[in-house]
Write the structure tokens for this entry.
Amino acid sequence: MDYLFDMPTDFKVYKIKRDKSSGSQPTHTHPYYEIFYLINGDCTFFIDHNIYKLNRGDLIVVPQGELHKSSFPQHGCSERYVLCFKESNLKWLNDIVGPDFVKESLSTGVISIPDKRRDYVESLMNKMIFENEGQDILSPAFIRTGLIELVLFIIRCRRYEENVIKELDVDNQLMQQIATYIYENYDKKLSLEDMSDKFHISRSYLSKKFKAVTGFGFKEYIVNVRIKNACRLLLETNKSITDIAFECGFNDSNYFGDAFRHVKGVSPNKYRKNKEAI
């Protein structure tokens, strides 16, 4: 089932501490953007098929609908800002530079904010937290301008600055390769036995390590990747639900329907009909 934060409005921002006693966050998606900025400490962040080791000053953009999970540190604690906003907040920016430019610039990615610019980012976050408490009738305007300024800064970093893009987590390179293979070959037959043979590891090790690193069971991840692509086809094409099921790697349309309801909470047909609400 989709894991959704409580967002009664189109914007939310907060500062939070986490350690191993906080429990594990479930892997989830949500129908809005999220910006995650690590103030101090460290954590592992899994998004779609990529695994990142985040440290102080790292910022990750999580687009709408992307599978992701953060793992809390085993020692000490980490502190982060989390900012969530709906696409409607970007209308002004879309009108100026174009929605395609904005969407591409806010695709999944991790930026290592340079030391000299961290105070600037953290100041913006603190201002939005302050205004989000509802200081006066001008607070919504201050929040909107703060968000746009932060998004513009992120776009500039990603497009025009050098050496700010975070590399993947090399400590989990094998699990990274397996997740990427599944992500790119979701429409094919994928079994634990076949993958263990392909990557020359035991089935038990693959199963346990994949779960520990990504938060997904092996089969669970395959199903979620297939469902994600099925959602895209349901909204962007007129293909039949049966054709979409087979195209996404399901060999039984009934099983596809059950799996879809389990992950999305509605049937494929209802999901397609509710396109405007998604």
About this structure: Residues 39 and 240 are 47 Å apart (CA to CA). Confidence is low (pLDDT under 50) at residues 1-8.
